[in-house]
Each structure stands twice: as structure tokens, then as C-alpha cells.
Amino acid sequence: MDLKTRRILVTGGAEFLGRHVVSLLQRRGCLEITIPRRAQYDLIHEAAVERLYRSERPVVVIHLAATVGGIGANRANPGKFVYENLVMGAMLLEFARQHRVEKFVTVGTICSYPKFAPIPFCEEDLWNGYPEETNAPYGLAKKMLLVQGQAYRQQYGMNVIHVPPVNLYGPGDSFDPDSSHVIPAVIRKCFDAIDRSLPEIVCWGDGTPTREFLHVEDCARAIAMATERYDSSEPVNIGAGFEISTRELVERIAEFSGFTGRIVWNTTMPNGQPRRRLDTRRAAARFGFRAEKDFDTGIRETIAWYRENHRRSVGVTV
């Protein structure tokens, strides 16, 4: 698919991942890109979704918009997360069908995988168990987009693809106390401790869970490649293919940030999923994607961005 000739709708195009996807598409010569803003199109309301399709007439839809956050946000908002993501995705895909959209890209989440899925997570294991409890409502809502897309492909012949990425990070990430994920949250903690001369930072859990992280620029490239080249009902993992323990991650961020105090683990708080690492072979085979950004380089870039843009922020619980 030559995206330069298509009218493209990118939901969530003004957010962290969306900004990188839009920028990449523009650099590749895509001139007709619509980025709906919530003030104009609140995508959890049917009338707004119908009006969006009627006025913008997209040919390709890349659905990135989500109500999402870290462990704390997931624990506090399970009803909100399941409802808004479920309704938003279902209506966007249904109205895409009605308006004969040529291709619909659903971006899922690693949170959809079962809590105790074998490592590395293979796409075939998506349905072999229940997700980790703290993020199950969000993960299941996003996984229903896979089901809906497969059903629409079967009944209507609609070109819908599903790509679940791992946790993202990079410059421009959200450092909001109510929604940030582990990497921006720890960066913020370290700089807050440095600025206030605090002797320690406190992190949730015991540091043993592992996570996989993908630089946002790599993820944007993967989504563009899948949009251009992939056409199948099978979901495709988007990741870097490695894992790192939370303890090692926090120690590395502290070192790169210049924080030399103690790291205290609050074991009364949840760890989340025990391990996370994706099998990324299908993305390489089906549309040629492989992660390129070195992790330490990406972390240093993210820290440098935070240092320049948000140095005076207050602390946040990881």
C-alpha cells in the first residue's frame, strides 16, 4: 500500500506514540493526515465517531488512541479503562466498515497476554489464560479489537490488522503522576530526589519482575511498515526481543540520572506480571521489522529530554 496517496486518520495522533507515527508518515511523504482532538471528536461517543468519518473521509485508519496508565492507574480505574477502550475501538471499527475504509490498523497491548504465558510470548498464546489482574480490564478491552477485526475480515472481507507492542519509552513520554509507566516514573523520582536532596527513592514491588521495552521511534516504524505491507488476520507482536528486571532497570536509570541515594522497594505494593518478553519473529518474517535502538542509548536520550523539559516536576509513585 502506497500511503502517500491515502487519506490517513491517526487516532491518538497528538499523544506520545501518535506524534512519532504522524511525524514518520509526514517524512515519508504522506500529506493528508487527520489527527482528531478530543475537544472536537470525543471518540467514546457514537455521534462524534460518525461525524469524524463523514467529515474527514479517511481511507486508512491507524487506531492509537487509548485510555491507559501504569499499575496504579489500572488499579484505580478498571471500569473506566475497560469501558472507554472497548467502546472507542468497537465504534471506530464499525464506522470504518460502514464508510468502506480500505485498511484499519488496531494497535493492541502486551497487557492482553495471559499472566503466566510462556516466555517469550508467542501470538498463539494470547488466549491461553487470563491476563495479570491489575491490567486485565485494559488488556481484554484491547484484545477485543483483535476479535472484532478478525470477525469483520471473515464476514465483510475488511483489511484489519492487529499489532500488540510491548511497553514503550523515549523522549516526549508522559511523566504525569496519574498515568506514567515505569521508565518515566523512575526518571522523575530520581530527579525529584536530586533536586530535593532526598536520601532515597521508593519503588513498588520487590524488583524481580522482568519487562521488555521498545523505543517509541522503533514502534512508530513498525506500525508504518505493518500498515504498508501486512494483510492478515493473525496478530503480530511488536517488540525488541529482550527482558530486564525492574531492579536492574531502576539501578540503570538511577546511574544515568546521577542519583546516588538508596533504592527502597515497597513489597506491600503489587509487582504486576512476573515476566514479559515477546517473540518478535513474526514481525521480522511478515513485514521486515526489527528493533534498532540500543536500550542504554534510548534511556539516556529519555533522561536528557526530561532534564531539559520537566526538571521541576514533583515525585510520582512507580
Model description:
- A 5-stranded parallel beta sheet has the order 2-1-3-4-5, sandwiched between helices. Strands 6-9 form a two-stranded parallel sheet. Strands 7-11 form a two-stranded parallel ribbon.
- α6 packs across α8 (246-257) and α6 packs across α10 (295-309).
- β1, α1 (16-27) and β2 (33-34) form a beta-alpha-beta unit.
- The protein is of the alpha/beta class and 318 residues long.
- The chain folds into 2 domains: 3-168 and 213-229, 3-Layer(aba) Sandwich (Rossmann fold), CATH 3.40.50; 171-210 and 242-273 and 294-309, UDP-galactose 4-epimerase, domain 1.
- It contains 10 helices and 11 strands.
- The model is unreliable at 312-318 (pLDDT under 50).
Brief synopsis:
By secondary structure, the protein is α/β, with parallel strands linked by helices.
Query: Strand order across the biggest sheet?
Result: 2-1-3-4-5
Please state roughly what percent of the residues sit in beta strands, choosing from under 5%, 5-15%, 15-25%, 25-35%, 35-45% or over 45%.
Answer: 5-15%
Q: Mean of residue pLDDT? A: 94
User: Helical content, roughly?
Assistant: 40-55%
CATH class category label of the largest domain: Alpha Beta
CATH level-four homologous superfamily name of the largest domain: NAD(P)-binding Rossmann-like Domain
- Nearest-angstrom radius of gyration? 19 Å
CATH architecture assignment name of the largest domain: 3-Layer(aba) Sandwich
Distance between the termini: 41 Å
